[in-house]
């Protein structure tokens, strides 16, 4: 650990500093958050084979001891997201309500976006933006796995979002890129990269991102700013500088009982912001909740009428779903679906909006994994194969499964979707994406 960093922590924490040093020797907190659009928390607790200790931060978040749950069928079917409970704090403070239009400006890999989308429960709209193309793809795979449909992912600089979508959102989350001091146990690289100069650079970038966030918010809208660092320059000082620039923004109490007050800082009431330290049962987090004064409805984004898909897509959708998707959007050979109208996001770089149903190729329709993972499709799917544990393991490894069914089938385990296959009357040929298959040696617990 760098001397200069430890000296700052000693100044911040005073007599609590030894407790912080002690926390560094402890294993980091681990946890998961149940995706209630897939499985109720009560049901999850009745089927989870691990000890799940409740957190005071979010009712769906639990502390666990297990380290390798990425290959578990409940994870692969989007029943839960691996997230240490204190990382769920910012979205709890954002207080998302059904029907809200929400922007998550720095969204990958999607811990907070998946939490927001679960709270929206297929109502309203979530725009998840990520500046790094590779990270935007990871965000997409998480949104698909957890089965969401009423969202879009863009891959843009925050200023481009602000230029295009002024005043369009009820709630905006800036989970800012930061020096990551709270994540040193998880990401050793953050410790290597730490310097006071980097802290200052991060603070400047945070100011820039907050300026964009401000523009996207409607009057009366809520802006939550969060980091996973302890540096005052990136937390209280960033918020104070932002509030000094925008006189129509006010700091609100976070309205939660977890964590502790912030550090004293001229220009803000430190009792209103929240800090979480390892001594509070989490990794390092900072959260501030702000409101744009006044009240005005959000500016409505232009929406599109449902588009007509080609005959192959239409035949596929009619064959597979009891109730057709309400809105379709086609782009080239690809077909997308939503329960609400598609919004016009041009000229933004859109990675995905809605469910990718599949694509028409060579006079047939080739479905996509997302079609079978989408939560809104689950009760309408006409062809399903329920796998036992042995079949589930075989399926996740890419093997065929014995079945007398024909055509495309959603492959489920304990009622949770994992993907799809195509039956020929004897076998279901495996369509679980090659890049997602688990190794031959893996045994499901
Ligand atoms: C703390 S992480 C977000 C974590 C995410 N909210 C979650 O819960 O999974 C910050 C993100 O901001 C992105 N980022 C980096 N520079 C940025 C910039 N100048 N503007 C916007 N986002 C940026 C990073 O690529 C990173 O994905």
From TrEMBL:
<dbReference type="InterPro" id="IPR031341">
    <property type="entry name" value="Methyltr_RsmF_N"/>
</dbReference>
<dbReference type="Pfam" id="PF17126">
    <property type="entry name" value="RsmF_methylt_CI"/>
</dbReference>
<dbReference type="GO" id="GO:0032259">
    <property type="term" value="P:methylation"/>
</dbReference>
<dbReference type="GO" id="GO:0008168">
    <property type="term" value="F:methyltransferase activity"/>
</dbReference>
<keyword id="KW-0808">Transferase</keyword>
<keyword id="KW-0949">S-adenosyl-L-methionine</keyword>
<dbReference type="InterPro" id="IPR001678">
    <property type="entry name" value="MeTrfase_RsmB-F_NOP2_dom"/>
</dbReference>
<dbReference type="InterPro" id="IPR027391">
    <property type="entry name" value="Nol1_Nop2_Fmu_2"/>
</dbReference>
<comment type="similarity">
    <text>Belongs to the class I-like SAM-binding methyltransferase superfamily. RsmB/NOP family.</text>
</comment>
<feature type="domain" description="SAM-dependent MTase RsmB/NOP-type">
    <location>
        <begin position="1"/>
        <end position="293"/>
    </location>
</feature>
<keyword id="KW-0963">Cytoplasm</keyword>
<dbReference type="Pfam" id="PF13636">
    <property type="entry name" value="Methyltranf_PUA"/>
</dbReference>
<keyword id="KW-0489">Methyltransferase</keyword>
<dbReference type="Pfam" id="PF17125">
    <property type="entry name" value="Methyltr_RsmF_N"/>
</dbReference>
<dbReference type="InterPro" id="IPR018314">
    <property type="entry name" value="RsmB/NOL1/NOP2-like_CS"/>
</dbReference>
<dbReference type="InterPro" id="IPR029063">
    <property type="entry name" value="SAM-dependent_MTases_sf"/>
</dbReference>
<dbReference type="InterPro" id="IPR049560">
    <property type="entry name" value="MeTrfase_RsmB-F_NOP2_cat"/>
</dbReference>
<feature type="active site" description="Nucleophile">
    <location>
        <position position="228"/>
    </location>
</feature>
<feature type="binding site">
    <location>
        <position position="130"/>
    </location>
    <ligand>
        <name>S-adenosyl-L-methionine</name>
    </ligand>
</feature>
<protein>
    <submittedName>
        <fullName>RsmF rRNA methyltransferase first C-terminal domain-containing protein</fullName>
    </submittedName>
</protein>
<dbReference type="Pfam" id="PF01189">
    <property type="entry name" value="Methyltr_RsmB-F"/>
</dbReference>
<dbReference type="InterPro" id="IPR023267">
    <property type="entry name" value="RCMT"/>
</dbReference>
<keyword id="KW-0694">RNA-binding</keyword>
<feature type="binding site">
    <location>
        <begin position="106"/>
        <end position="112"/>
    </location>
    <ligand>
        <name>S-adenosyl-L-methionine</name>
    </ligand>
</feature>
<dbReference type="InterPro" id="IPR031340">
    <property type="entry name" value="RsmF_methylt_CI"/>
</dbReference>
<feature type="binding site">
    <location>
        <position position="175"/>
    </location>
    <ligand>
        <name>S-adenosyl-L-methionine</name>
    </ligand>
</feature>
